[in-house]
Write a sequence for this structure.
């Protein structure tokens, strides 16, 4: 029977056998369906966690812990499976006791190599879309009824005052807004507090030349994709306007001009006490769940160099840099060679400043055009859209590749990049710029996930460096600051009217320590990175980003963030975890790691 | 060969023969491919007009006038044809010398019964979408370059001052905004002027209980459909917020708080002089094209009844009615039984007023639920979406049915409605309400297209009338107004604290007469209606709505409007006509009718 040999038939047979073994509670038989070198990434469905199991023993242990509660079933291949380079790939759907899910499967020699299981919706708590959408009006007549605006206005006036939100999100950038939109659809009363006045201001307030470095296909917000003429690279103010409109039409409870002053958790009451200053008025909120969506970073990192206090010029961090108008004709030293260092140096040059970039450490640089063609094209591009790869599918395909396997795809990609752009790298190196592709050659995406720093997607600054238009001081440390100069540890000195710290940001744990307590920050531990053991991302190996989008060692405390794609995708899982807790659905968490020292 | 007999093959054969005949310039052969009883509706492709040809002679005359310029070709069936009730239906694409097009075909016995040809884009002036979208940033470095916001701010400051818009749209409701968005994509410099301060205010300012009477699937704006949880019936303020956000993210040049004071055309200079008052400052604009998008209506119709000046209560038109709060306990007379009369009467009742509706003429009433199920389900509904009917396809299918054939589908539909809701109509009749389905039984949609008045989609008020909660005075005229009462021509009199004129609106020609001149208003003639010969829509037969979305007898003067669906769909054709003129593409218009006396 030829159909037996089609990829779809083979995937279907695997899934049926796997499902039968799970239904029979036969964990050994289920594990037998995996290769020795296997990876099962689960986003909530089994583990109520964001978790990658590596190898059969891990899989068996996870199933022993979760199978009785999860009660999975209804496994069904979705669409047609394909065969690529010896691996059969298939989409599937399934259910657990609590939820519906979608997954992705890669088979080698009839056995599972990678498995992705993700939760898509909670049974009985589905979003009201399509034919289940609300009506918007109750037909018929009703004395004293209020219209939409009156109900909305009353609801906004009550929430946070006479009625407490179930969830409070600190930070109203794309992360907080995406999560807020999902919680809104799930009927979770939520307030977002944001220091800036309006949604989008966190982008508007950045330096004037900022444009999203990732392309439009990667950047959609949930539910409301950009229209089909949206530019490939969104200018910051245009993106700010989009976020502002998005927050409005999604009907988010967005408290602008609101600073969070402090938070503490009462475990007995299972409730947070959070003090906020809203436009000058202090208010105490008592949410059940607290989410930090302040970005993957902490506070701007201002490094205190010896002698800095006597400097007579201007010193600022890139987070405070708006534009180069004021710096025309000035001698500017930009300390740092990451994304903001490059962008700010180029903006200063465009405004006629004399710019020197101080490169303290080797940097991953990839040309935007090349990254678009080689890095994004498969999943997030117009050709991908044409091939039927929806944003949701792209997100799941990206999620289906475990961190352990990332170097195996990223190293060849960056070898190809190095080859294709050899002339570019040669010019950059000749100018004295130190570039690399990461300790293990896994390149830009790996760097972003490991340390969220030390890389630049070149949109023009590298050319200025290669041409000497932006001067470079590389391979030296800073010895101290003079009255109007910067001194280096090789004995040289450069004059400086302006010193710009492109020194990045601290870690989110600083915010936790300041807003909650150092004890809670210690209990929760490090953020970001997955224990790759590379510089800036020490082990032990975790295989998932630390503390992101999943339960932490502090009850009812969550961390949400990342770039636009990660914020979009993982906001789904954060929202489902919070909704499940609100509905008292059991959420036994498997595999909560001990906190990594911060 | 069986494929010869498939609907697709038959449609393909017809299209090939038709295309060959046109290519050969053999009009007789082309016309031979039509039934005697045939209809060809053309939206710009051949006629640069919105035009229905009826019968072979009309078709032949049109082809004789247009074929040499249009030079059509590249006819190709799109997707699979279907067969329904003896008619083969197919989609197709084609090109003309100037443009690309999409069409729809119905064959009976191998000959064409209905043909729709529509222009979709001008060659060389395509919208920049998908892989042709703009980049959003010029990579590389450039001294003195401005960012998106700086360019946008400068552009807004110049347009209408140091640089003239090519097109001026008067009226910033959904019609002006939809057209503005299309012109923006086509690169036509455009200003929209609107009396209200913000986009969406024309909805926000209406009576508090207003909710769109058409369902969400019918109401999408171009390019940016509502998200999939949008309510079936959008509350007015929510829709106002959507329009405001839409105008912002589409980057329209929207001049709020701006009144148009007057306009005149200089034929020699091919230019309008339009005076506007923008927030207290008078400005003169000199656009090449002027569009009225002030709605299908003119000014509110206030009828002067004898004795009205001595009335000691309150009198207002529904356009000024905001909500019933002030009228609790008052005796209110609502004069008129159209949509706003019903909505306002129900809102007054909900606020505890004593309400009597005065019905001056028989009214078409259809229950919303029934209309949704029988009227909208085929084209604009969740099941239609599931069947793959996109909004664009639904719009084209609706457009493919010529007005002449409308009664043949609408009469049976309304017979079914009458049967299904017999109990409803019996109760309504028993209360004294006079209802009908139009002179010829063609019902609600026909009434909307013929006179844009005299109908109500029941969302609750009819039940109140049937129950006597809203009292009814029907079949009488108004003899006069007393000091605190309304007198009827049957000699009866009713006390009144408040008289509300739900008397509708005048015609758009009043606006033309006031803002341009009575001469131009006379030259242009009547609006709306297609010459059905029914009450309020006198002949001669035109087969298309008068003066809407197409060239008028006044050069460079356009009228755009209609409900959300018509505004969405026909804004495409208005934008293409204006863009073609801006680019000096020849636009020979076929079949401009003489103005119908206004």
């Amino acid at each position: 029977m030829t159909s037996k040999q089609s990829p779809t038939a083979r995937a279907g047979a695997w899934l049926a056998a796997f499902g039968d073994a799970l239904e029979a509670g036969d964990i050994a038989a289920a594990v037998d369906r995996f290769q020795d070198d296997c990876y099962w990434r689960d986003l909530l469905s089994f583990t109520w966690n964001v978790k990658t199991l590596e190898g059969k023993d891990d899989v068996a242990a996870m199933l022993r812990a979760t199978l009785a509660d999860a009660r999975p079933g209804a496994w069904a291949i979705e669409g047609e499976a394909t065969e690529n380079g010896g691996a059969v790939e298939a989409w599937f759907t399934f259910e657990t006791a609590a939820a519906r899910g979608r997954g992705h499967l890669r088979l080698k020699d009839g056995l599972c190599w990678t498995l992705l299981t993700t939760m898509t919706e909670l049974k009985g708590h589905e979003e009201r879309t399509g034919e289940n959408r609300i009506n918007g009006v109750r037909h018929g007549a009703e004395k004293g009824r209020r219209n939409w605006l009156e109900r909305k206005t009353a609801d906004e006036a009550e929430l946070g005052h006479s009625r407490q939100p179930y969830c409070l999100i600190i930070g109203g950038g794309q992360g907080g807004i995406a999560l807020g939109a999902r919680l809104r659809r799930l009927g979770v009363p939520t307030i977002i507090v944001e220091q800036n006045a309006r949604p989008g201001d966190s982008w508007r307030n950045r330096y004037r030349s900022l444009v999203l470095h990732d392309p439009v296909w990667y950047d959609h917000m949930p539910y409301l994709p950009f229209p089909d003429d949206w530019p490939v690279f969104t200018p910051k103010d245009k993106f700010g306007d989009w976020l502002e409109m998005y927050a409005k039409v999604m009907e988010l409870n967005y408290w602008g001009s609101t600073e969070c002053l402090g938070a503490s958790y009462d475990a007995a009451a299972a409730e947070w006490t959070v003090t906020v200053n809203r436009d000058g008025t202090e208010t105490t909120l008592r949410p059940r769940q607290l989410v930090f969506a302040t970005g993957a970073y902490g506070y701007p990192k201002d490094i205190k160099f010896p002698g800095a206090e006597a400097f007579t010029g201007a010193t600022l961090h890139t987070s405070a840099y708006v534009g180069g108008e004021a710096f025309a004709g000035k001698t500017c030293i930009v300390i740092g060679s990451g994304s903001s260092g490059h962008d700010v140096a180029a903006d200063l040059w465009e405004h006629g400043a004399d710019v020197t970039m101080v490169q303290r450490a080797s940097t991953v640089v990839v040309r935007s055009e090349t990254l678009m063609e080689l890095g994004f094209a498969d999943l997030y591009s117009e050709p991908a859209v044409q091939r039927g790869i929806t944003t949701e599918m792209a997100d799941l395909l990206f999620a289906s590749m475990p961190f352990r396997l990332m170097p195996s795809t990223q190293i060849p990609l960056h070898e190809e990049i190095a080859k294709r752009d050899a002339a570019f790298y040669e010019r950059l190196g000749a100018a004295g710029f130190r570039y690399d592709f990461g300790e293990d050659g896994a390149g830009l995406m790996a760097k972003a996930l490991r340390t969220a720093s030390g890389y630049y997607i070149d949109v023009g600054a590298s050319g200025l460096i290669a041409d000497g238009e932006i001067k470079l001081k590389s391979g030296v440390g800073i010895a101290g600051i003079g009255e109007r100069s910067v001194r280096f540890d090789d004995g040289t000195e450069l004059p400086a009217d302006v010193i710009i710290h492109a020194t990045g940001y601290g870690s989110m744990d600083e915010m936790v320590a300041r807003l909650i307590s150092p004890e809670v920050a210690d209990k929760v531990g490090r953020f970001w990175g997955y224990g790759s053991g590379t510089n800036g991302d020490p082990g032990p190996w975790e295989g998932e980003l630390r503390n992101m989008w999943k339960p932490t060692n502090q009850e009812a405390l969550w961390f949400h963030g990342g770039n636009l794609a990660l914020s979009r995708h993982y906001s789904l899982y954060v929202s489902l975890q919070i909704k499940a807790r609100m509905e008292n659905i059991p959420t036994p968490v498997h595999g909560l790691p001990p906190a990594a020292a911060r």
Notes: The longest strand of chain B covers residues 73-84. The radius of gyration of chain B is 25 Å.
